[in-house]
Design brief:
By secondary structure, the chain is of the alpha+beta class. It has a domain of 144 residues: Photosynthetic Reaction Center, Chain H, domain 2 (Alpha-Beta Complex), CATH 3.90.50.10. Helices cover 10% and strands 15% of the residues. The protein is built from five helices and nine strands. The strands form two sheets. Strands 1, 2, 3, 4, 5, 6 and 7 form a seven-stranded mixed β-sheet that branches. Strands 8-9 form a two-stranded antiparallel ribbon. Strand 4 and strand 5 form a beta hairpin. 12% of the residues are buried. Pfam families: DUF2382, PRC. One of its GO terms (cellular component) is plasma membrane light-harvesting complex.
Length: 298
């Protein structure tokens, strides 16, 4: 059976146990109250059942971590302690737990082999003695170990070692009362998409511009002193005299230039609404049947 660390099996395990985190809890021997180590983690099977505590037994063996079956453990969440019947000799015999190593059937069998107690049987039953009879000395019975049961990886289940995994046999049993509660979470999902782009449209534009064009006007006029004698100057009666005049005209220069017309700003706003949900939840309450006995309630 595959085993998982508690945080790997249930990342929200602290909400499930509704108590102190089992990690970091001190481990003490039952009866002597001597601290032997600290809970490093816990291993859970695929059905969610606690099977082992990973205990750092540094108070006994520096740096060694071992597996401690839940049936050999009593947890006091109020005192933040775990009590066990583990002995130092067992801690020395247990295989060391290494991070990342597979906890398979063979490894568990090594662990269980250390914790399993040898079973004994009597070779002859005790004989009943009458109250009126004379008590005779009874020879001691021969005690022989019962053959160890055989285990098979294909058929093994944890019920075969109930004393290692059954926590209901503890004298200080704890009943946990659970209740359900509604947890409201939000999930963000995409409902659509708005695509905003631009394209180019064309149109024919017309513009009017006035152009100046020069032309020569030759006008022959009669001067005011026409017919009167004048004194000739150097230009009189000279051939080849030419007058030059530059003629200009304007031509259109039409070109295009781009300019910024406007800006389009795209933003998002969030509209909020409240959604009501209703569900039936359960809550456990304690039933006490004292059968006429006096029970102290705290």
């Amino acid at each position: 059976m595959v085993l998982h660390k508690i945080s790997e099996f249930d990342p929200n395990y602290l909400d499930t146990i509704q108590g102190n985190d089992i990690k970091g809890m001190g481990v003490y021997t039952q009866g002597t109250n001597d601290k032997i180590g600290t809970v490093n983690d816990a291993l859970i099977d695929e059905k969610g059942q606690f099977r082992y505590l990973i205990v750092d037994v540094g108070f006994w063996i520096f740096g060694k971590k071992v597996l401690l079956p839940l049936g050999r453990t009593s947890i006091d969440f109020k005192a933040d302690r775990a009590y066990t019947r583990l002995t130092k000799e067992q801690a020395e015999q247990l295989p060391e737990y290494e991070e990342g190593a597979a906890v398979d059937y063979d490894y568990e069998e090594q662990v269980r082999g250390v914790y399993r107690e040898p079973q004994l049987e009597a070779s002859a039953p005790l004989e009943a003695v009458s109250s009126a009879a004379v008590v005779q000395p009874v020879a001691p019975r021969n005690i022989t170990p019962v053959p160890a049961p055989t285990y098979d990886r294909d058929t093994y289940n944890y019920d075969r070692d109930a004393d290692l995994y059954d926590t209901t046999s503890h004298p200080d049993q704890t009943i946990k009362l659970y209740e359900e509660r509604l947890v409201a979470n939000k999930e963000r999902r995409k409902t659509g998409e708005v695509a905003i782009g631009k394209h180019v449209e064309t149109e024919t534009a017309r513009v009017a511009i006035g152009l100046d064009k020069e032309r020569v006007v030759i006008e022959r006029v009669t001067p005011e002193n026409a017919g009167k004698a004048v004194t000739l100057d150097a230009t009189a009666f000279r051939e080849g005299e030419v007058a030059h005049m530059d003629i200009y005209e304007e031509t259109p220069d039409i070109h295009k230039e781009a300019f910024l017309r406007e800006e389009v700003r795209v933003t998002k706003v969030v509209d909020q609404e409240t959604v009501q949900a209703q569900e039936t939840i359960r809550k456990e309450e304690l039933d006490i049947d004292t059968e006429g006995l006096s029970v102290e309630k705290r």
